[in-house]
């Protein structure tokens, strides 16, 4: 036992000296802003070569430049994660440049809120397409680079993003809650099927993280999917600096009495990808400030 602990300690010491993800390659979707951007920056800071994607090519290019200016290594593959050709494009680009894949962070997504009885089929289908079908297809495309021989194995993981909506449901989010619940089942299945290849698969379920998806819908943030504009945000939401908001019901339900920021959200992804979580697989890590306990 002492010998094993010394071996692990030595490995982590070496890793810390070079960065937690030194020499590893990570694909991160939805990296043009918000949590995805923070994840791309922190993974690169910890030594990973990051392959970033977003539907907004301009924002994506800015993040790639930000990483390179800070001394990191990155390439970007712009596009819609739900497109039929997307998985092959990003996997081929990654392998052509770096020769391998260590991590996939399926972060891309958005909300399309409607009450259950007014939700049309297309509003249901697009959320399922982006939050469940797209991660599944990307992971499946990358399978040959994860299901590898023992002598080729390195630290490898899949991280899928869920939500407290997927754990507990949420008013106005039948589509999103169902999709985020499905992601947890997908992840546990990957953990069981690919565990024998040394691959870890985990989910991170976010609570209130301050992004455009949790900002006031009245701010007018939108995105375009399949030619349709989708309004983003929460009706009447207050900014995190608003004094009234800090004393409101939303924060009273959070033991830490605040929402999280995107860097805090990304740090949980880093933990799950890193050797610090080398024996963590099939887990859903709740990043909620204590809400829901």
TrEMBL record:
Select a single GO molecular function from the record's annotations and give it: quinone binding
Q: Name one Pfam family in it.
A: adh_short
The record's PROSITE patterns line, in alphabetical order, gives: ADH_SHORT
**Which is a GO BP term held by this UniProt record?**
fatty acid biosynthetic process
Superkingdom of source? Eukaryota
Q: Which UniProt keywords apply?
A: NADP, Oxidoreductase
**Keyword match Zinc:** no
Task: Give the family this protein belongs to, as stated in its UniProt record.
Answer: Belongs to the short-chain dehydrogenases/reductases (SDR) family.
Protein name in UniProt: NAD(P)-binding protein
**Species name:** Lentinula aciculospora
Q: Source organism lineage?
A: Eukaryota, Fungi, Dikarya, Basidiomycota, Agaricomycotina
């Amino acid at each position: 036992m002492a010998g094993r602990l010394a071996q692990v300690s030595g490995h982590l010491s070496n890793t810390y000296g070079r960065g937690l993800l030194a020499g590893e390659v990570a694909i991160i979707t939805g990296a043009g802003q918000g949590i995805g951007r923070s994840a791309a920056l922190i993974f690169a800071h910890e030594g990973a070569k990051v392959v970033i994607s977003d539907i907004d090519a301009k924002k994506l290019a800015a993040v790639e430049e930000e990483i390179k200016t800070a001394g990191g290594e990155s390439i970007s593959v712009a596009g819609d994660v739900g497109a039929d050709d997307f998985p092959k494009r990003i996997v081929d680009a990654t392998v052509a440049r770096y020769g391998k894949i260590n991590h996939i962070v399926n972060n891309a997504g958005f909300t399309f809120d409607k009450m259950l009885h007014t939700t049309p089929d297309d509003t249901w289908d697009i959320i399922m397409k982006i939050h469940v079908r797209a991660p599944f297809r990307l992971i499946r495309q990358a399978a040959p680079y994860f299901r590898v021989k023992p002598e080729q194995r390195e630290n490898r993981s899949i991280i899928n993003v869920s939500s407290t909506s997927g754990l507990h449901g949420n008013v106005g989010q039948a589509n999103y809650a169902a999709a985020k619940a499905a992601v947890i089942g997908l992840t546990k299945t990957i953990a069981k099927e690919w565990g024998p290849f040394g691959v870890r698969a985990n989910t991170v379920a976010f609570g209130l993280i301050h992004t455009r998806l949790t900002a006031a819908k009245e701010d007018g943030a939108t995105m375009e999917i399949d030619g349709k504009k989708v309004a983003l945000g929460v009706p009447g939401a207050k900014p995190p600096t608003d004094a009234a908001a800090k004393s409101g019901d939303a924060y009273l339900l959070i033991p830490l009495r605040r929402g999280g920021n995107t860097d805090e959200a990304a740090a949980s992804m880093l933990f799950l990808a890193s050797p610090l979580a080398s024996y963590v697989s099939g887990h859903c890590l709740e990043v909620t400030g204590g809400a829901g306990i």
